Amino acid sequence: MNKILSEAAPAFGFCPFEKIRDNLINCRSISRIPENTKSVIVLLFPYNFGDDAYTDSDISRYAVVPDYHDTIGRILTDTVERLKEKYPDEEFVAFTDNSPIPEVRAAMYAGLGVRGLNGLFFNREYGSWIFIGEIVTTMICEYPAVADSEITCIKCGKCVSACPTKAIGENGINTEKCLSFITQKKGELTDEQEMFIKNSGCAWGCDVCQSVCPMNKSVKTEPIEIFRDGAEFKARTDDDISDRAYAWRGKKVIERNLKILNK
Ligand code: B12
Ligand code: SF4
Ligand code: SF4
Question: Is the CB of 214 inside a 6 Å radius of any atom of ligand 2?
């Protein structure tokens, strides 16, 4: 099992399903979770090229690499096939992002790292610059002993004060205030929302609460191979943007944001 998983991702772990059963996100794919699920295999996919690489970039780091829904989706589908071959009596179902699994929580209980005040997950080696993907299975795995007290950050407050829209509160982030959410919003924006985008210099997403975090200093800068190949540091609006993370909202949204930046 570990050999197959290590060929898919540089870091992975096992979360008991019972740790997240009561926190499932209510989306359409929830029905794909097998009835007798016992474990969530959590895999981390690093995408960070290091601070210097992004100096002239106008999109957030996660959008620089080819759309992770496709790339990680393909890796996980392949991994599921290999696991099914090896364990024919068990069920395996892959998810990433558009997933009923609360991925931050699952990664914490898989013993892979901690949750920050900004709601994001930080791994010891790669920091928060990782995508989380998972395979839900009926197999019982070897779980780490993770105490609730061990899975939050040091709460230094740097992300709270640096957040441009003051979206981080005591109980996590206020989604609608978050600049990442604003850049993905369709239609007209308020003058204030436009100002936030203009001041950020970023046409898609927001990296501020990650960039200031001490847990992201001195982390590994080794994106997985599939990300190294197709990285693009500037947003595009030509005919084929289908392999980019900003494509799913349609071309109008990224065009609007670029127009705001260039005003
Ligand atoms: C909807 C969504 C968004 C929304 C709303 C975000 C939000 N936090 O609600 C928006 C569009 C704003 C967004 C933005 C971003 N997102 Co987003 N998003 C998601 C998505 C699809 C669902 C999140 C969700 O609704 N979770 C449910 C709620 C209830 O979870 P929660 O508030 O985090 O709290 C849970 C746990 O943290 C835990 N918990 C909370 N507090 C505590 C305390 C203790 C003690 C314990 C034990 C547990 C615990 O319990 C809660 C319930 O499960 C996830 C993928 C997924 N399926 O999880 C990606 C995901 C969280 N996003 C991701 C990314 C990369 C981003 C951005 C960084 C992108 C960018 N650069 O702009 C920003 C960061 C904004 C931020 N600070 O969170 C990554 C995060 C990777 C990481 N290192 O953590 C994920 C995991 C996608 C992925 N597959 O990699 N996102
Ligand atoms: S900046 Fe400080 S408070 Fe925010 S996530 Fe990082 S360690 Fe936690
Ligand atoms: S992604 Fe940006 S706007 Fe959203 S919580 Fe983090 S710093 Fe604030």
Answer: yes
